[in-house]
Design a protein that fits this description.
With about 300 residues, the chain is α/β, with parallel strands linked by helices. About 40% of the residues lie in helices and about 20% in strands. A hairpin with an 8-residue loop joins strand 12 and strand 13. Helix 1 crosses helix 9. It is globular and about 50 Å long. The chain binds 1,4,5,6-tetrahydronicotinamide adenine dinucleotide. The site of 1,4,5,6-tetrahydronicotinamide adenine dinucleotide has 34 residues, from helix 1 and helix 4. 1,4,5,6-tetrahydronicotinamide adenine dinucleotide (TXD) binds next to helix 1 and helix 4.
Length: about 300
């Protein structure tokens, strides 16, 4: 059987690390594209030379044009500017709209059946841009944020309780930004609701740290934003698609009637498989959760309204 092709657009911190994780998982042949001359080729060659060490049978290629991406099964879009200290994700809107729409047009022409996983910020707006530009069906264009935000919450919970990260499940909904909605009622540790394991004050503290999870890393790095966890989160989503795993993951998915969103991309739990977003799962929200979700969706609406394509 021919190996699937996974293309990664933008070979910066997130993109190159996506290529790394995809190769580690032997998910398929990887193509890395960037505008910077030589850089994707150099990183791809370095990564390709790690394959014999580990015995992973996939190829890794780098390019400045899009021909090598033709026939991709999944394309991960990470091209764009990253935040610097003091910048919000929304500050990237105008520049990244241009970048994401231009790279999506190149990709879509060569891989009309691909599933697109968008990573560039501001996420919920950029996934909208990618869908509009590609003209792909909504279920084939998906944004990555919730897997990362949930992983951050899980990481903090596991560290606080000194338990395995494997046993902590968490669900973070809404837009990717300060208005994200960690659903504490749906978090559990080995099946036990989080509220039975931790005080309300401590939960609040970890929720706040999760909301600021990206900014905490930006402030420490000073020259860029997080990339190890974001890239693995995107590759987990790619794996669910390539291997038709039908995983339930929080994805930025296009919601029409679902959650009463009315035609925007927001973070919701979804089934991810060979057909992209195969189902959106509507969880029951109490009044406070509903209000937080609606506020988050309203923020996404305002961002999208200011986009000029
Ligand atoms: O949760 C999430 N969704 C995110 C999003 C988590 C982490 C990072 N997030 C966003 O991803 C971040 O705010 C940025 O918008 C993107 C990429 O972040 P990264 O940290 O990888 O940024 P880099 O290292 O600056 O890499 C971006 C690369 C860089 O090499 C540029 O040369 C390239 O994008 N770039 C382009 N490639 C191809 N084509 C065009 N037009 C282009 N413009 C820039």
């Amino acid at each position: 059987m021919k190996r699937p092709k996974i293309s990664v657009i933008g070979a910066g911190n997130v993109g190159a690390t996506c290529a790394h994780w995809a190769a580690v998982k032997e998910l398929g042949d990887v193509v890395l594209v960037d505008v910077v001359e030589g850089m994707p080729q150099g990183k791809a060659l370095d990564l390709a030379q790690a394959m014999p060490v580990a015995g992973w049978d996939v190829t890794v290629a780098g390019a400045n044009d899009y021909d090598a991406t033709a026939g991709s099964e999944v394309v991960i879009i990470t091209a764009g500017l990253a935040r610097k200290p003091g910048m919000s994700r929304d500050d990237l809107l105008i520049k990244n709209t241009q970048i994401v729409s231009s790279v999506t047009a190149e990709v879509a022409r060569r891989s009309p059946a691909a599933k697109l996983i968008v990573v560039s910020n501001p996420l919920d707006a950029m996934v909208y841009v990618a869908q509009r530009t590609s003209g792909f069906t909504h279920r084939n264009v998906i944004g990555m944020a919730g897997v990362l935000d949930s992983a951050r919450f899980r990481c903090f919970i596991a560290a606080e309780l000194d338990v395995s990260v494997e046993d902590v499940t968490a669900l973070v909904l809404g837009g990717h930004g300060d208005s994200m909605v960690p659903l504490v009622r749906y978090c559990s540790v080995g099946g036990v609701p989080l509220a039975q394991m931790m005080s309300a004050a401590k939960i609040d503290e970890l929720v706040t740290r999760t909301r600021n999870g990206g900014a905490e890393i930006v402030a420490l790095l000073k020259t860029g934003s997080a990339y190890y966890a974001p890239s693995l989160a995107a590759v987990e989503m790619a794996e669910a698609i390539v291997r038709d795993k039908k995983r339930i993951m929080p994805c930025a998915a296009f919601c029409q009637k679902e959650y009463g969103v009315g035609g925007y991309y927001v973070g919701v739990p979804a089934k991810l498989g060979a057909d992209g977003i195969e189902q959106i799962i509507e969880v029951e929200l109490d009044a406070a959760e509903r209000a937080a979700f609606d506020a988050s969706t309203e923020h996404v609406r305002q961002l999208v309204a200011s986009i000029k394509l």
